[in-house]
Design brief:
alpha+beta, 28 strands, elongated
């Protein structure tokens, strides 16, 4: 006999049982010995005792007899806030894991091995599993694990020698909304018998479910008056739970809200009259043994058993109400002795890989594999993915067997790849132990990543259709990063560099914001002082950055004074604001907030807006500096909820172009209807320049290229021949090309623009065809636009 304390929980909230191998003897130590069953419920709860710092939640049998939460007739302790049903804790309607832990501790604590029963289906999904496992940890239960109810019923039968090796055992489980049928093969492993679970249980919704039974009992308790404040004490009476489960139900004295007493007698209520068993839907014909596990008793249990027996080819074994708890105790013993508890399949999990023959399914968890409980499964073969150079993130498509739709997860790599990198994707999971860990490893990057299923976006289309859509890979313009360099920091023949300006400007009482802004916006040999990602050249010393930050603080102070309406030097124009905005993503977040507030208040006077030209700074400045996901989401929302048809080419169109081209997350905020509206806006921006001098054309090709980056969300978007929007965009490009080529004798400025834009338009057509080959397309567009 083991000298370890072992415990098995059937914590279900309808009628809880705990089977343990020890008992407490008054005046003596705890004694290991015969199985001891601790029962709670029916309709078990936890109750709150004490107040303030002394308040505590108590569960188990003590909560059954406590007056707490039993209604106003019990005074302050009768407040409904003092009692929480265990069902609401299990269903996570009250997500306090500490409270769920007390529901466990109230019946047993201190076991060396603990097993808790878990339902199959929605009531036992991964979130519920993790909730229960955390409650076990909070309750300080050692070696806690979860096992499916049908498996525990089969372990009970194995322990009682009611089944034998090789048999197919059908287990009918009584559930919240009806019945479920699980079929388990009994196999021998390491000289003991253990159930093997090969697939998920079949669920048969019907009016025999626990919810129906208890609802009917409550209706009988409250009577013709119905549910009200006057009958609430009856609805929560102990008799309701007993009547709902067909147990002996003696008359019960209840305390009424006014303090009087009332007798509730549900002895005449017969739960068997409100149920029916859909025998024809129970697929049990191939079973060698059929077990029925339920918490019901008496005539009700007999009625349910008779209905199931009609579908069973052999005599049905109706198990005692404590069977699942006793099976859990047997599982705990096996866990402590290192014996197999059961063998389980894992829900199939797949991804999409690309090879020479295109996109195809890859199973990370194979359907035919089973695993001994308690052991970790790892994909026998990792999926191999390749990330192209220049990418900052990788998209992973996933399909779970039980999920209605596949999902797309985006994993940030932290920095653009300089070379193509190989990535391996695999899964680790334990049966009935919460979510699978989806892991990604890149030896080229020297890093591991976790893929979060819950954070991934649903792809509402069949898996086969998704694979087909990805079979033809299309190009995506690389994210635009405007580089920084030392050229603008050094002096030139015509002006002082930023290094020289930083020697004097931080200490001057009248800061020359215009000169500083001009230096930051200067693109010397294609490089700024600060990159569009907010980086500075690595050669810049720490003391130089300190002086620059002093100027930034002063600019913030001056700009904030303008917002408050204060006057003084530097507050009469937007030069300090311009200086801040040309720091790109290095700019303090407060500035983005101020600019967005200004846009939201566009119909009223604002200190930043002295004339209409100020709006160019407001919008383009926002497009340059927005960096955090929160700010980006707000900025995108501001633009998308405005009237896109009325956008101004160098305001809203420019800002949207900046964000779509410079961010990998900005395209994810677009929905299909947004893309359709932006496509119309882009076509209108092209059209207004045809026949003119193309002085308002700068941001039209920029916006188009940014729109194509929506392929990060939908890889098939804006592809000629597949997406009608792409055909419309291609048509306006060809019309623009024809116009530019037709006017060869225009002025010099027009000829310069023409020579810049024609190659860009050709590259854009290639991108629309999904065959883009210019990795620096967005940088070229930026250069041609002269922005």
């Amino acid at each position: 006999m083991t000298n370890r304390k072992l415990c098995g929980f059937d914590l279900n909230g309808w009628r809880d049982f705990v089977a343990k191998n020890w008992r407490s003897v008054p005046g003596e130590d705890e004694v290991i010995g015969p199985t001891d069953i601790v029962a709670s419920g029916p309709l078990s709860s936890i109750v709150r005792i004490g107040e303030g710092r002394l308040a505590a939640w108590i569960g188990g049998p003590q909560a059954d007899i406590a007056p707490h939460g039993r209604g106003g007739g019990w005074g302050d302790v009768g407040s409904e806030q003092r009692r929480i049903p265990v069902r609401s804790l299990l269903e996570m309607r009250d997500e306090g894991v500490e409270k769920l832990a007390q529901a466990l501790v109230g019946s047993a604590s201190g076991s060396a091995n603990t097993v808790v029963a878990i339902n199959e289906g929605p009531d036992g999904d991964e979130a519920v599993q993790e909730h229960l496992l955390e409650a076990l940890a909070r309750g300080k239960f050692r070696n806690g694990s979860l096992v499916w109810r049908p498996v525990l019923a089969a372990l009970f039968a194995i322990h009682r020698n009611q089944v034998s090796e090789g048999q197919l055992v059908g287990v009918v489980s009584h559930q919240r909304q009806g019945l479920s049928v699980q079929k388990l093969r009994i196999r021998r492993a390491r000289n003991v018998l253990a159930p093997e679970r090969r697939e998920a249980a079949a669920h048969i919704p019907c009016d025999a479910g626990y919810e129906t039974l208890f609802r009917s009992a409550r209706n009988a308790a409250v009577g013709a008056e119905g549910f009200s404040a006057r009958t609430a004490h009856r609805a929560i009476a102990s008799s309701v739970g007993k009547a709902g489960l067909g147990m002996d139900c003696y008359p019960e004295m209840l305390r009424m809200p006014n303090g009087d007493w009332e007798l509730l007698d549900l002895n005449k209520f017969d739960a068997s009259e409100v149920v029916s068993v859909p025998s024809s839907e129970l697929d049990l014909a191939d079973c060698d043994v059929v077990l029925f596990e339920t918490l019901c008793e008496g005539r009700l249990k007999e009625c349910l058993s008779d209905g199931m027996q009609r579908a069973a080819p052999v005599e049905l074994l109706s198990l005692p109400a404590t069977a699942v708890a006793e099976g859990a105790l047997e599982a705990a013993r096996r866990a402590g002795d290192g014996e197999p508890i059961f063998f389980d399949f894992l829900p199939r999990l797949s991804t999409i890989v690309f090879g020479s023959d295109g996109a195809k399914n890859f199973d990370l968890i194979r359907k035919e594999e089973t695993l001994e409980a308690g052991r970790i499964y790892r994909s026998p073969e990792a999926a191999s993915l390749a990330i192209p150079a220049g990418q900052e993130s990788v998209s992973v498509y996933l399909r779970k067997e039980e999920a209605p739709w596949p999902r797309k997860a985006s994993v940030s790599l932290g920095a653009p790849l300089k070379h193509q990198a190989a990535v391996s994707l695999w899964v680790e999971q334990k049966p009935a132990a919460g979510r699978a860990r989806i892991l990604m490893e890149s030896p080229d990057l020297g890093r591991n990543f976790a893929v979060d299923w819950d954070e991934a976006l649903e792809e509402e289309r069949p898996w086969s259709e998704l694979i087909e859509s990805l079979d033809t890979q299309v190009s995506i313009p690389k994210r635009l990063v405007l580089p920084c360099g030392m050229e603008a920091w050094h002096d030139s023949d015509r002006s002082e560099g930023m290094l020289t300006l930083l020697e004097s400007e931080p200490t001057r009482s009248r800061t020359d914001w215009a000169t500083l802004r001009q230096k930051l916006s200067q693109r010397t040999f294609g490089k700024y002082c600060i990159s569009s990602d907010g980086d500075v050249p690595p050669e810049i010393a720490a003391e130089t950055l300190e002086r620059f930050e002093i100027l930034t603080s002063k600019a913030l102070e001056v700009t904030e004074k303008r917002l408050r309406g204060e006057s003084g030097y530097g507050t009469e124009d937007n030069e300090a604001l311009k200086f801040l905005s040309w720091q790109f993503r290095r700019c303090p977040r407060d500035v983005a907030t101020w600019l967005m507030d200004c846009i939201e208040a566009s119909g009223r006077n604002h200190p930043f807006v002295k004339h209409q030209a100020s709006w160019v700074l407001i919008y383009q400045g926002l497009g340059r500096i927005v960096g955090s996901e929160e700010d980006e989401a707000r900025a995108m929302r501001l633009l998308l909820t405005s009237s896109i048809e009325d956008w101004v080419w160098n305001r809203q169109s420019a800002t949207m172009a900046f964000m779509l081209s410079r961010s990998d997350s900005a395209p994810s905020y677009l929905k299909r209807e947004d893309v359709e509206k932006l496509t119309k806006r882009t076509i209108a921006d092209f059209q207004r320049n045809i026949g003119g001098q193309y002085t308002m054309f700068n941001y039209a090709p920029f916006l188009l290229a940014g729109l194509i980056r929506w392929r990060l969300v939908d890889p098939t978007a804006l592809v000629i021949g597949t997406d009608p929007l792409a055909d419309d965009l291609s048509a306006i490009i060809e019309k623009t090309e024809h116009d530019l080529k037709a006017r060869r004798r225009s002025n010099m400025k027009f000829q310069t623009r023409r020579s810049k834009f024609l190659p860009i338009l050709q590259d854009l057509k290639s991108e629309l065809a999904g065959e883009g080959s210019n990795p620096d397309l967005l940088l070229d567009v930026y250069g041609a636009s002269g922005t």
